[in-house]
Amino acid sequence: MWTAWMIAVRFLRDGRGQTILILFGITIGVAVIVFVTALISGLQANIIARTLGTQAHITLHAPDEVNHIAPAGDITRLTLEDPRPQRLRSINNWQHMRDLLDTDPMLDAVSPLVSGPAFAQRGNARRSVALIGMDPERYLRVIPVDRDMVAGRFQPAADKVVIGHRLATELGLRPGDRLRIDAGNGRTATVDISGIFELGVRELDERYVYMDLKQVQTLIDLPGGVTTIDLTVADIFDADAIAARIGGLTGLKSESWMETNAQLMNALAAQRLSTRMISFFVAVSVAFGIASVLSVSVVQRTRQIGILRAMGAGQRQMLLVFVLQGALLGMIGAITGSICGVLLIASFDTFGPGLFEVSVTPGLIAATMVLATTVGALAASQPARRAARLDPVTAIRNG
Amino acid sequence: MAEAGDFNSADEVLRLEGIGKSYNLGLPTEAEVLHGIDLALTRGDFAALVGPSGSGKSTLLNLIGLLDRPTRGRIQLLGEPTAEMSDAELTARRATTIGFVFQFHHLIPAFTALENVLMPHMLRRGRPNPEASAWARQLLTDVGLAAQIDRYPDQLSGGQQQRVAIARALAARPALLLADEPTGNLDTVTADGVFELLRRFNRTFGCAVLVVTHDPRLSARCDRVIELVDGRIVRDERHAAADN
Q1: Among the four A34, A166, B135, B196, which has the fewest Cβ within 10 Å?
Q2: Within a domain: residue A23?
């Protein structure tokens, strides 16, 4: 092994011109792969972070109400069925379920909340809003609204609410002002504004009114109940699987962010696929480059290979010499290429549009190294086999 | 080597019995190059293999050097029959028992003189130990290249390169040294020096030397002359060499 390694290194050094040329090619290839991969994953991470900044990863609801049709034995029947309206219902036994979900190691946060429609009224101005009653400590672990406060503080309590900045503008409200909430069923409440948030999503900034859990329960006639349990998971791409599992376990209707944002997921998947295609074809062309350079090298060194064989080099040793050359080319190219890729990304972050930050992870660099080294060794295998099979006598005579 | 046969003397390095070699077997162009060669070489032998072009000298040398296999006949190296050996075993024998010197030096240009001499050792054992390095330096000093040890082949003259090649051939302390026109592309003074070296190593190491040569001046200085014509040995005589 030591000898094969040394011969491989010397052969590469001896054919300096060729080596530098092919290294240049590999460097460009690796730099492109690193840059494109980092760019796309940076972009995707950014999109996902923005999407999930205002959404739970998984939401649990009480199951839909459906009509139950009594079994009627062996007869054919025609049914005229009106789907049932879905009234606000509480999740049964939600305290127990919350405690159970708290022990699930795949979940980062569990936040039960009650939500229902209402009108917000100030003077003659009325707006339709969504009341959200929750436990602030739990809720902030799902959606950190406290980071997006523009006025006051996020402290919903009895008769104290937090509203979005659009609603505040439309109703001319500031912290400390009073607001009348009408739940539409004869129940009303007059509350103080304790804070104003801006999540950056129009719908939420216009409609969300964060309140005390108990007060919302009373307002929408759901004493002691919650309508939704919001969950966050450790690995966001596991959300689908975890949602299905929890849905099956609890019998609740569970929906992951991936379902809610199916179109986004599709777009991200297509983007990832195209990144992989680019990487694949760049890797293939790098492989062809390495293979052709080593093929030429085998032809050029036919006589030397013959001499080495005559002096006692085994077929495996010759094979190793050329496979190592391929692997070395791949590895060195991966190092220089990664450096170039990182520089490219740094200049993108500095001089680019600046919409989002692209960063290179050590994992990406490591994966590229392994990929390039493997591709190099694989590309070298064909020329290496030819070198190993050379008959020493003919090689010396005709080389 | 107990079963080596009663006709083998302890000094015998190589024995060929009824060796034949054909090319293009089974094709209309089949041609037999060697017809039933019998030959034995012993440790002290310093033999010249002569003959016109196309007489089969190189073919015979390749067979003796285990670079090729005969179509028929038996080859024994140090009393061991080689016919049954695998390619890997032949490679190992080649590395430990036989040294080659070619007409063109065939040094590996990417390595220094010292590394070229160490190459057979490195191919077999990997990283050279201090003894191997010392021995290689000694050999290079013996061939008069003490000052050129770290030069690359393209920084050496033709005669110097051929001397490195001889040192390399001797590095594994072979029992048999095969030289194919070792002085073919050297001027007469340089050629004499190279020949002297072979002579000296034959005497000091007691390794059998077989030199293929066209040069009658050279063959006249060998102890034994084997003449090959049309694939047959037509003369095999020992004589007191001119400088013996």
Answers
A1: B196
A2: yes
